[in-house]
Structure formats: structure tokens, C-alpha cells
Amino acid sequence: MMLPQNAKIVNAFPNQVGGAIAGDWVCVKDFHRAMLIVGITTAADHTDVTLTVDKATNVAAGNESAGITLDNTWTLVDIPAIPLLDVMTKGAVGAVSVAPAIAANTAHLFVVDINTDELPTNLFNFDCLQATMAGGHATQYVSGVWVLYEPRYAQEPQLAAVTD
Predict the structure, then answer these.
(1) Vertex 76: Cα angle to 138 and 147 (nearest 5)
(2) Per-residue pLDDT at 100
(3) E strand or H helix at 3
């Protein structure tokens, strides 16, 4: 399976230094699942990082609902320059994914998988997501992507995800 032909890959937030980050909104209405992948590299100074995912009814943050419950999260933290282990740890169900006590001068990987069919409520048809990060440090480098997969309608190329 070739991922670009079966999924839509878009920036959650571009490569940047850590700190408070509000990512770009992405429309997931054409996909059953959305996976957020975030990489962080720390320098000598480091702090804890908290990731949250918000939902809205459009990419302009209409009817925004902050901090959805994340059922499926995985982490791989404190990866040395030459990795000795690549086993991810499954996180507990909750509203946030936290990386406590991130070690200095290492890399970290966070994965959040979301069933987009569970986003709508009886009040709003939520179909847009935004990743946000709190904490972090100006010497931490952060990048994140959304992988939208299991399309509702098979087509080539995939529909845009940065517009409604």
C-alpha cells in the first residue's frame, strides 16, 4: 500500500521551536480516521509537553470545543541519537497526552489516533481538528503531521483537508 495514494498527509504545525503552539485546523469530513504524529527534539534545556486536540465545525474554528478525549495515544520518549529500542507505550484514555520529565538531548515521538466518526454531537457536526501544544521550551524543536486515512470516498487525488 502506498500511503500517499490511500491517505492525506498535511502539516499539523510546521517545524518550529517549542512552547505554546496552536496548529493549523484540518477538515476530516472525508476520512474515518485521523492520526497525529508529533516529533520533539530537546536540547540541554527541556520541560514537559502537553498535547491536546480540539474540534470545530469548520477550519475557521466555528463552535470550537477544546480538549477532546483521546482514546488511543502512544509515546516513545527519550530516544538517544542511536536508538536501542523502538517500542511505543500505549497511553491512558484522557483529554491530553503528556510527556513527563522529557530528558535533555533526546528525541521523542507522540502518536494520537482519532476515530472521526465519534466527533459529531447531537448539537454540532464537528468535522475539523487542531493539535495544540503547551509547555515545551524554546530549545525544543517540534514538528507535527496529520495522516488522514480510511477515506469515505475513494478518489485520486484525495480531497483537500485544509479547507471545508
Answers:
(1) 85
(2) 56
(3) helix 3-6
Burial of 122 (0-12, 13-18, 19+ CB in 10 A): exposed
- Ramachandran angles phi, psi of 117, nearest 5°: -70, -15
* Span 41-87, pLDDT tens digits: 887 666 778 889 999 999 999 999 988 999 999 988 777 767 777 88
Assigned domain for 91 exists: yes
Residue 134 lies in a domain: yes
Each residue of 56-88: b (16+ CB within 10 Å) or e?
Answer: bbbbeeeebeeebebeebbbbbbbeeeeeeeee
Residue 55, in any domain of the structure? yes
Report pTM.
0.89
Tell me phi and psi for residue 4, to 5 degrees.
-60, -20
Distance (Å, rounded) from C-alpha 115 to C-alpha 104? 33
